[in-house]
Design goal:
With 163 residues, this protein is mainly α. The protein contains eight helices and two strands, in the order H-H-H-H-H-H-E-E-H-H. A hairpin with a 3-residue loop joins strand 1 and strand 2. The protein is globular, with a radius of gyration of 17 Å. The model has no long low-confidence stretch (mean pLDDT 85).
């Protein structure tokens, strides 16, 4: 079970054993906040990227409600991750490479992005994206090769279990 508490416990212990600071974004950012709540003597500083602090609540609010209410529209991409749409549409190594290129800032000739936080991946644009300048061709190829082994199931499956 991937609860905030269990994940916070695991991350705190990993950081303790490695003697490292904790930093993360998206769901991981929320976990870092929880570590600070549950282990205040362990955490000295926090910085957050794309994760506002949300106090623990006894009532569960589905991600879809949070996003569509306008409270966190920047988590709209996570709705796409849990929908199964990407797993169905992105299967070949070339499609995976196009996806990664879009995630790392690839844009069309007219400047359209491959993704944004409110929508997610623009599947209809992926084949038209120019190569990103943020990551080398070799690195994109390496990660496309790695993801091609099992597809997007692991990445999307993790989000399905969390949200």
């Amino acid at each position: 079970m991937y609860s905030f508490k269990r994940t916070a416990d695991d991350m705190r212990e990993l950081a303790r054993q490695l003697g490292q600071a904790l930093a993360d974004q998206a769901r991981g950012g929320a976990i870092v906040f929880r570590i600070a709540l549950w282990y205040p003597d362990f955490v000295t500083h926090i910085f957050s990227i794309c994760t506002p602090y949300t106090a623990p609540s006894k009532n569960f609010t589905p991600l879809e409600v949070i996003v569509k209410s306008g409270r966190l529209p920047n988590f709209g991409y996570q709705l796409q991750l849990v929908s199964g749409q990407l797993e169905n549409a992105i299967q070949s190594k070339e499609q995976i490479r196009q996806l990664l290129n879009g995630l790392y800032g690839g844009r069309t000739a007219t400047g359209e992005p491959g993704w944004d936080v409110e929508h997610g991946i623009y599947l209809d644009r992926l084949h038209r994206l120019k190569d990103t300048v943020l990551v080398s061709k070799e690195m994109l190829d390496y990660y496309a090769d790695q993801y091609a082994i099992n597809g997007l199931h692991g990445t999307c499956g993790y989000n399905k279990r969390c949200f």
